[in-house]
Structures are given as C-alpha cells and as structure tokens.
Amino acid sequence: QEKSSRLSAALFGEDCEISRDQLYELLKYAALGKCHNATQPSWCHIYHQSHLAGVVVIVLHEVSQLHFYKFYLQFKHLRKVFRHRFTLTPSANFLASLCGEGANLKPQTTAQGLTSTGSECVPKSSGLQCDPIILKYGEKKQGLTSYILTSEEQKKNDYPMKGSPGCQGYVHTECDQQRTDSSPLFGLDCEMCLTAKGNEVTRVSLVDAQGQCLLNELVKPESTVVNYRTRFSGITKKMLLPVKTRLPDIQTRLKKMLPPDAVLVGHSLNADLQALEMIHPSVIDTSLLFARNEGRRFKLKFLARAVLGKEIQCEEKLGHDPAEDARAALELAQFFIEQGPAKVAELNLEMLLTTEKLAEVSQNKAAALQPQGCRVQKQLSELPHLSKPCFLECLQVTGQKPLLLGRQELDSSGLCQSNLSTSNKQILQRALEDVPLSTFSIIQFSLGPEYITSHLLAGLCEKVRSKLTDMLTIYAGPFEESFCLKSVKKEFGRCGPIRSLTVITETYQPYVCIQYEVLEAAQLAVESLDGAEVAGSCIKVQRPVTAAVLDCDVLIKELELDVENEGVIYVAGLKKSVTEMDLQEEFSQLKDLETLFLPKDLQSGKHRNCCFLKFQKSESALAALEVINGWTVKGSKLRSRNALASGHLWRWIWQMNHSNGKQGGNISHEKMEQLSDTEQDLRKEMKKLDQHIKKLYRSLQNNTLCVVLFPGMNSTHGSQSGLGLMGIKDDGGRSAC
Asked: Which keywords does UniProt give here (predicted)?
C-alpha cells in the first residue's frame, strides 16, 4: 500500500508566527525533497515527502488576518478543512518573497489575460535529457561496475597503466579478481610536496566503505623538498623530520590492505596513483563521475557541499586533510550509485555553482566599494545581502514546469506587475484545467481596488476591535449595596484572566462590568455563573446587547467546531504560583494528552491563570472535560470548556485588544455609514473566494500539499498581519495531520 504524506507543525499557542524565510523553507522542501540542498523545515515536518502528489499555493492578495476573522462565518470551507494555521509577516512584494528573491519566471500571457509559466504536461525527465550526466550514464540506476573507468578512459585521463610510458618500475596492487556490484569500495587521497624530483607523496589516507580510516600515514620523500605547499598539503618541515616511512613501505602496506576485488575511489585519482607510483585496474573518479560539459570538472569541495551538505577543506584549517577528502570522495560515489544518475542530475549542480560564483562576485564587489579602513569590519559584521536562488527555477530545470496563475507576475527584476482585467472566476477555471498537470502551482486571487482603501481597512479594524471587546465583556448583577467586590472578582477570576473590572452604579442596584483577556473566560462566566449565587446575590450574567454581538452565539458555536480547536480544551482557575511542570504532572494521567499551553502576558511575560490542553483524539478531550471540572490543583478548583481560540487566534485577540485603536484610527459615524455598503459587497467577495478555494481543493489529488496564504498588508493603506493555512489532502477531503 502506498504511503500517505503527513504534515505536523508546532503551531499551538504562542509558537505560531512564521517568517517569509520559514515559509520559503517549507515550500522548497515540499517541492524538491532532499535535492538542491532542501532540508526539512525547522518549524514543521513533512512525512513521506517523496509521496506528495504536488504542491498548490493559493494566494489571496490584499487579504489579511483581519479579513479572515471579520468575515469568519463566510469562510466555511477554510475553517473546516485546514488544521494548521500561522501568522505571516506582511510584505510589500509578497509574490517575490514567496518565490525567492532570485526568481525570474517568464510567464506567457494568454488571450484571457491570465499569466502562466507553463500549463502543458511535460514528462518529468524531459528537462534532463541534455544533462551531461544523463548523456553519459542514462537515467536508470546501475551497479558500481557501470561507473568504473574503462581502460580507454584511464588512458585518456593519464592513469598509470601496465606498459604505459613513464610507468616502468610502478608497483601493481595485484587486485586482479573480477569486479561485481558487491565489490568493496575504498577511498584514497594523497598530499604531495614539490621536490627536486617533482611531486612526491608526503601523506597517504585510505578509508573503507563505512568511512573508517584504515591508513593515515606521513611519508618522507626521497628527494629534497623544494616547496612544502603547506597551504594545501598541511605538511611542514617540522612534521617530516622524525618520519622514517618511505614510499616502498606505503606501497607494501597498500598491497596487503586491499582485497583482490577492491575498487579505489578518489577525486582526480590519477594524480594520487602517479605520486604513489602504483597501478590499480579498477577506479571510480568522482571528478569524472559527476560529469560536466566540455571536459570541465567540479572541485571536490563544491561537490561535498552541494551533494553531501558537508564543508571540507575549510580555510581556517592548515591545508587539506587527506582522510577527510578520501571520505568525501567515497561518499560522493556511494550517493551517485544509490540515488542513480537521474536524481543526481536533478540536483542541477551547474546552476548551483553559477549561483555560488555570482554570490561571491557580489560579495567581492560590495567589499571593494568600502573605504580601505572599513572593509575588514564590513566582512566581519555586515555581509551584503545576496539573492536567494529560486527553487521554482530548479523545478524548471528538472522539467517540472511550475504553474503561476493570477493577475500578478514577476518580471526579470523580480518586481510584480499586475493585469487587472482578469477576473477571479477566469483564474479559477484555468486553475481547474491546469493544476492537475503541474507538480507545483501558485494560484492567485485578488480583490478589486475599491476593497483596499485605507478608510475601509480602518473601518474594518474598528468594527472587529469593537466586536471583540463586546464578546470579551460580561455584565453581572444585580448585587446588594454593600456587596463584597473582592468575592466577585475572585469568583469571576476562576473563569480566566480579567483585564478590567468596573462597578456600575447608574442602575437601581449595583452591577459589575468585567472584561476578560480570552473568549473562553467570558463564555465560561456566562455558562457557569448565570443564575448562580455570588457575594450573597442571585445574579444574571450576560454580554452587552449590541448589534455586533447579535450573532455571538452562532460565532461561538462555529469557533467550537473549528478544526483548529478539535481535541483542545480550555482550563481556568489556576493559581499563579502553579508552574508548567506542576500542570504536566497533574494532567499526566489524562489519556492521549499531546500538548499543554500555558498562555503568558505578552508584555510582562507572566503566565495567566488558565491553560489549553490538546489531545490526540476528540473523544479523549471530551472525557477530560468531565474529569477536570471540579478538580482541585494546589487548593484551586478548576473550570473547563471546549476551546474557542487556542491557536494563533489567542495571540491575535491579545494584540487587537491592546492596540488602543492605533491601527484602525478614529472613524466618524458618518464615515462608517458610507462604508457599510462597500463592506456588504466585500462580505460577498469573501464568500466567493471561499467557494473558489473549495472547488479548487476538491479537484486536487490526494496527498497534495495545499497552502492558503493571506499575505497581509504593509503599505500606505496600513499594516495588517497575514495568515497562512495548510494541510495535505487525504481521502476524506480534509487536510491530513
């Protein structure tokens, strides 16, 4: 049975703000796997990446986190499908930052005005047919014997051979047994010094197939040393003074150590064998294995970094380490044999090398522009910003044409250009046709200019803040004239952290107005204390009656059903002296408990008197609710309910609640009335976008990673955080975790 890809992410509680670099990291790994130096993202994990059917990124331009929660009820599909959500830092040029700063996509403009980087189905290997590695070895995996140099190749590349001119007196290893694909590999490397005779061996290293060093010996040359070449060889006069080992001793030891079917591996191994004055019939030369055009060769240092992710021959070291070089060459050969030519060709080493050289040139130019006295400081503390290679170009090179659909496209400079004549409906129709033919797609939907004015943004911000305030606020009473305020505060504090408490005296009998920090606390107070006896009075607990909270019950219900809150419960009534370790110990007996999140005040850093518990199964969360209600932890009685804002919403509410109207500004009542019609139209647009994404999502193959991005806004119209939702589609149509 084919494995399904899964996605896990530590996006619970406060760990939910993701930078553009981290997002790029995810998309690069999802698209390329371990090729092109792509690595697992640091903030989430993709299981079985190689089984992904594709990657689809849906970008909703000019839309932010503010829009998602203002029109939360309109986004029926998004909030029920995508479990993983995160906050995004807004960017003025989001598309360029998403693709990589080095992006140079060349879209084609269709008759409908849609931009596309390629919608035809191209065989995955078609872009590799001209790669020198594929031309030399084909695409299929082969055994190691296929990569052993032939006699012709050895002769052409100046390998010492029996009967060759200048090889008289050379020692034969006598490893003449026929080679098979199971023959043992040995890495060999030598360091040489220049003597009166020419290049002579001064150090020899041999490693086995497991990378174990079998030989690492200094050798005294026969002739007088003219140049120790210490910078490269690492050899000094002092090192060779006590050495008594001579070349014949090394030749004898190598003959004894190598089995009769040994295959030697090295980088430009001909030079090492010439210096050793030895002949060996079976060699794999990594400088020739990783083939290039026109007889050029990659350096070992570059191959180790690009293919193995290892740094060798570091400048801070004195000279090369032959054991390190021998091991690197051996591992390169093993990688080539195990992965096969096609996988190696997909690394696109030529492009990586070009990128490195361009970065080096840029760095050198930047350093050259500095005054002489400033250059050293510049190099140490503030290296110039270098463009990031675009992974979409890597896909294009391997024949996997990425698809870019929408009003925006990238020009050659990486700047965005817009085509406003294209409708979201046209983009959807084209996406439904072309996305199944592409392994990586970016589909962009946009709002019209009338929906991104500074007045509308400020109005939305003001309305959301006002609604949140009303939902976080409860009124309780009536109380007796001489009621104990401390008792009231203690009782309502058991529901969660209180931001403010005010006594209302304008009424016949006193009431209290309490504003909470979290939605769950206000809801818990309404559910558990309405009709209860508090401070000697039977009281009523309710939210303020305003137009903004008329749909509060519907919103609370939908938040409970939100897939992000599935299996999560809210627990209140904790004493401030209780530590996270105390809670871990207290709740350890709860079945299937996965994570505990103890919220902190984002200004003081002190934890609040509540926490969230996330369970692996929803049934376990429901069972825990029954157990926890009434529990006592260190003398404090607990209350609990289903979570409403356990993920990044908790942080966003806190920020909105403490922004003091700075983002929205003061909007006059008259202006708010004028914006009402536009807001109604915007509500319809949001509903349409949700429907577009639903249709597109349903058309995707199972095992497709889908990422929906609200880029946020960072412009003259104001700044609003973005939002990301992601998941891998499974058989049920929902995103797999």
From this structure: Coiled coil, Exonuclease, Hydrolase, Nuclease, RNA-binding
Instruction: State the average pLDDT over residues 475-495.
Output: 95
Q: What is the mean pLDDT of residues 307-329?
A: 84
Q: What is the pLDDT of residue 376?
A: 31
Domain ranges of the chain: 143-355, 455-551, 566-643
pLDDT score, position 123: 36
**Residue 413 pLDDT level (bands cut at 50, 70, 90):** very low
Identify the burial level of 517 via C-beta atoms within 10 angstroms of its C-beta, where 0-12 means exposed, 13-18 middle and 19 or more buried. Answer: buried
Residue 262 clears pLDDT 70, i.e. is over it: yes
CB 11 within 8 A of CB 86: yes
Q: How far is CA 57 from CA 44, 186, 488, 642, 709, in A?
A: 17, 46, 50, 31, 7
The CATH superfamily holding the domain 455-551 is: RRM (RNA recognition motif) domain (3.30.70.330)
Report DSSP letters for 433-499, one per residue.
HHGGG-SEEEEEE---GGGS-HHHHHHHHHHHHHHHHHHHEEEEE---TT--HHHHHHHHHTTS-EE
Looking at 131-183, which runs of residues are DSSP E strands? 171-172
Q: What is the mean pLDDT of residues 271-298?
A: 93
What letter would DSSP give residue 564? G
What are the phi and psi torsion angles at 172 (to 5°)?
Answer: -90, 135
Pairing mode, if any, of strands 537-538 and 533-534? antiparallel
Q: How confident is residue 121, by pLDDT bands cut at 50, 70 and 90?
A: very low
Q: What H or E segment, with its residue span, contains residue 500?
A: strand 498-504
Instruction: Tell which CATH architecture fits domain 566-643.
Output: 2-Layer Sandwich (3.30)
Question: What's the average model confidence in pLDDT over 137-143?
Answer: 92
Comparing 668 with 238, the larger pLDDT belongs to 238
Higher pLDDT, 696 or 635: 696
Q: Which two tokens stand for residue 440?
A: 């990586």
Which residues touch 354 (CB under 8 Å, ≥6 apart)? none
CA distance 737 to 725: 12
Strand partners, 568: 614
Q: Residue 248 to residues 201, 275, 460, 569, 663: CA-CA distances in angstroms?
A: 11, 12, 85, 76, 81
CA atoms within 13 A of residue 462's CA, in its CB half-sphere: 18
Percent of the chain whose predicted confidence (pLDDT) is above 90: 49
Phi/psi of residue 49, nearest 5 degrees: -55, -35
Mean pLDDT of the chain: 83
Give the mean model confidence (pLDDT) for residues 291-306.
89
Q: Does 478 sit behind a cis peptide bond, omega within 30 degrees of 0 on the bond before it? A: yes
Average pLDDT over residues 28-39: 79
% helix, strand, coil for the chain, step of 5: 40, 20, 40
Instruction: Examine domains 455-551 and 566-643 and report if their fold is the same.
Output: yes
Q: What is the pTM of this model?
A: 0.62
pLDDT of residue 530: 96
Strands 171-172 and 636-637: unpaired
A 10 A CB-CB count for 713 gives 26
Q: Considering just the CA atoms, what is the radius of gyration of the chain in Å?
A: 34
Q: Which CATH superfamily is domain 143-355 in?
A: Ribonuclease H-like superfamily/Ribonuclease H (3.30.420.10)
Residues in CB range of 207: below 8 A, 6 or more apart: 186, 187, 213, 214, 323, 326, 327, 330
Rounded to whole angstroms, the Cα distance separating 560 from 564 reads: 9
Which whole number is the average pLDDT over 221-249? 90
| Cα–Cα distance for residue pair 410/388, rounded to 1 Å | 15
